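User: I'm preparing a small set of examples for a lab meeting where we compare how different chains pack in three dimensions. I only have the primary sequence for this one, and I'd like the structure in token form so I can line it up with the others. Please keep the answer compact; I'll paste it straight into my notes.
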Amino acid sequence: MQRKRVLPLAALMLCTPALAGPAAAVASPQTVPAPPPATAPTAAAPLRILLTNDDGYNAPGIRKAFERLTAAGHDVTIVAPLTNQSGTGTKMMSAPTITVKHPEPKVWAVDGTPGDSVAFGLSEVFEGHAPDLVVSGTNFGPNVAGLATHSGTVGGAVAALESGVPAIALSTGGVTAPDPVSTVNAMGPTVDFAVKLIDRLRARAKSGPLLPAGVGLNVNHPIVGADGTGVAAGVATTFQDPQTLLEPDFTDSGDGTWKVNVKVNLRPAAKGGDVEAVSADKIAVSPMNANWNTGPADYAATSALIAGLRP
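Assistant: Understood. Below is the structure token output for the 311-residue chain.
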């Protein structure tokens, strides 16, 4: 899914160093003047947020997000999968029935994918009054490069964009296999940044839409420091690196089954991509849309390719 041509300026407007915290302000002070402090959007109304994920409704990432977003004054409702749905991408169930549990106030657990959860939330939980924003995450582990294409976290955000609701996919992790302790610790800084980002969206939107129509943000926060509690080195507007990251290997067991081995195969990062940013301890913010369109240049190339063809 090539999303790198989709409105890069939309994210560029959002990701000034003021969002990054103290580390961003000290980068290249000799040549780049420090930006003015971000104005706190105290007059902006709190948002009604549908919070989902792919790790399950009770996973640490979504619970941290719920706590921090609620503490920031937003009206947050969890509508997320009942069980872990990592790697389900944009899949949506086609069964005639679906099980939904309501274990506590402001929490709905849907026995399906992130896309199913968002669909149920928009249709039933927020019936007649769509949320201002869907936040998906924060995910345990990164959703950069090819991982984003198959990510249930990103899939939940895509389901929202398809329905015309602004969406942010939020993930925590580097490009190596995630360490449980440092990843969970880094979820705190991840959600702190999400609160800043949402404040920025509210301040810039005034009474208009939070994001341009059809555009969402895929946010990947690195793990900084040995324990994951460090501050990111900055914020970068990025695109989805075209590499796959994961390389599967299949071994025949001789009985009709195959053993599956998956390893990280990290190639040189594309300049300006999400892998490059996260590898440099920066927060990667990639604009995305809900379809597979590539842009006018590829459209023109395809038109030239099929010119003159007839059924």
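A couple of notes for your slides: The first strand starts at residue 48 and ends at 52. The longest helix spans residues 180-205.

User: Perfect, thanks.
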